[in-house]
UniProtKB/TrEMBL annotation:
Subcellular localization(s) per the UniProt record: Secreted
GO molecular function: hydrolase activity
Domain of life of the organism encoding this protein: Eukaryota
Keyword Disulfide bond: yes
Primary localisation category: secreted
Name of this chain's protein: Glycoside hydrolase
Length: 224
């Protein structure tokens, strides 16, 4: 069972999650005004402005699952080895950047786990594709794929309850400190990135010939 992350975005949000050919509604910040707030796998968060997590907040709890995120109160059943897809309502073509997915074992109930205790590992990451100034990026693939990003749940993943963190990082604001825009969807780490990391402090409009995705390496999960 997967407890999916909050549905966050720069100028959009995740409207739904697809697993085993079944659609699950994503978190929409306007749901905060519903009584009661519907139980769903997406982690509720205060992103009414479809806003960002700036590099200056990368060391705060908000970088885990976005602003003031709280545990999702439902879960999505999914088969190991299958595809988990995140459907965004929109994404600006100008917001060039990365699409990264993480996973963490809740070690029990994801509806009550302390988000700061989660230990995420990177499932998959996509960034620069080709060209420069600004070139083609993972966000262009996101747009081309019907504003949908997908990741594969490892075949070797043991049965259990997990949180998946889906994140887009926009780099269109040019190579200046503290201007990258992160749109996370749930994570537990003391430090993911800093404002000065190579892949964060990056000018997409330069004549670059390569790119290094920030954060840890993609993990190889094995059944235990």
């Amino acid at each position: 069972l997967l407890s999916s992350l909050p549905s966050i975005a720069a100028h959009g949000h995740v409207t739904g999650i697809v697993a085993n050919d079944t659609w699950y509604t994503g978190w929409n910040a306007e749901m905060r005004y519903q009584t009661p707030i519907p139980a769903m796998a997406g982690w509720p968060c205060d992103n009414l402005d479809n806003g960002i997590i700036a590099p200056s907040a990368f060391t705060t709890a908000d970088t885990i699952c976005h602003k003031s995120a709280t545990n999702g109160q439902a879960s999505i059943p999914i088969t190991a080895g299958s595809t988990l897809s995140f459907q965004w309502n929109t994404w600006p073509a100008s917001h060039k950047g990365l699409v990264i997915n993480y996973i963490a074992d809740c070690g029990g109930d994801c509806t009550t786990v302390d988000k700061t205790s989660l230990k995420f590992v990177k499932l998959a990451a996509a960034g620069w594709v080709e060209g420069n100034d600004p070139g083609t990026w993972a966000t262009d693939t996101l747009i081309a794929d019907n504003v949908t990003a997908s990741t594969t749940i490892p075949k070797g993943l043991k049965s259990g309850r997990y949180v998946v963190r889906h994140e887009v990082i926009a780099l269109h604001t040019v190579g200046q400190a503290n201007v990258a825009q992160a749109y996370p969807q749930c994570v537990n780490i003391e430090r993911f990135y800093t404002a000065s990391d190579t892949g964060i402090l990056f000018d997409v409009y330069s004549a670059f010939t390569g790119y290094v995705i920030p954060g840890p390496a993609v993990v190889a999960l094995r059944r235990r």
